[in-house]
Target: Class I SAM-dependent methyltransferase
Amino acid sequence: MTKGNPSSLPLPDAAAVRASAALCRLIADEIDGAGGWIPFSRFMELALYAPGLGYYSGGAHKFGPGGDFVTAPELTPLFARTLAAQAAQLLAESSPEIIEAGAGSGALAAELLLALESRDALPERYRILELSGELRQRQEETLRSRAPHLASRVEWLERLPQRCSGLVLGNEVLDAMPVALVAWQAEGIFERGVRLSEAGGFILADRPAKGALLAAAARLPVRAPYLSEIGLAARAWVAEWGRILERGALLLLDYGFPRHEYYLPERDCGTLMCHHRHHSHDDPLWLPGLSDITAHVDFTSIAEAGFDAGLDVLGYTGQAQFLLNCGITEALAQLQSDGERAYLAAAKDVGKLISPAEMGELFKVIALGRGIETPLLGFSRGDRVVTL
Ligand SMILES: C[S@@+](CC[C@H](N)C(=O)[O-])C[C@H]1O[C@@H](n2cnc3c(N)ncnc32)[C@H](O)[C@@H]1O
Model:
């Protein structure tokens, strides 16, 4: 992954530029309709999820080597095989059902089902909650090709269910939820939004923050001038699960920090980042719909949202510790019989998942649940306690 400004990005093709122009018209209409300004969180929501045009709901390839970024389940099936150990324990303690939110290409669903089958712990149903019709199609194809005999267990949800029990899983979902951009200034706290420039493009513009956002921003111990994000949508989403989940757990993996590390004085430009074809850049207004826009997760706020909604915080740790506790090295060792070359390639991928310099420490795992009494495998051992 290389980082730069948009002028160093690979040029998109004409079809992609046309799709972005159509999305820009839609966003501009919404800005006009709203009186000349929309919050950044709404801009991000449209840029990622506007039907047929947003980054996740349009035709961009997104995942894997030919896409914009590689996630853990895309990197190696060992990620899913290792998660299966934790999933099996939770299903046995609650109900044999999994709901995966934001299933991407469907790689995690396919490999997790196969791994649970080999553990004799298949869920009766595997439901996928996906905002993007394009991704749903891709998930169907992945399941048909990688786990055809299990594909009939998979259903897609249009919206959150009324009630559920079992495991609710989300890998890199919270970071893809819209965030508010907040500017703390000597004059007060402002919400950053988007308006049209004289030339008809988009520019960022601040307005005094109000309501729930102002209350959340005022509670943070930051000193002006400071710019960062507040993920109210992710908090609301977790709180909804607190209402829905009868017995079981929410297992969320993502990159981020506890609050005391998130809002450090030196992180005064926030964590917002964009990805386009394995380049990262920092301009969310660049050709909307063609880049992923993400922000790191404030895990303290996620834990609080769950706790306030009646869920127990069952565990929180770094991804490396979680995967080691769930047996990733044992899963890797099983590949030794596949030949040296395959084993070494898999070992390199596992290294990426657990190395502190790569995904091992920046990525965290949090489990929030109800009615789960047994300590969870993934959080059973830790050389260091990761505190919220
Ligand atoms: C970065 S991708 C991760 C995909 C996949 N989990 C993986 O690890 O490869 C983010 C995913 O989250 C989904 N997403 C974002 N907000 C969501 C929500 N509120 N409900 C369900 N899915 C959501 C997106 O549509 C997309 O599939």
Summary: The longest helix spans residues 14-33.
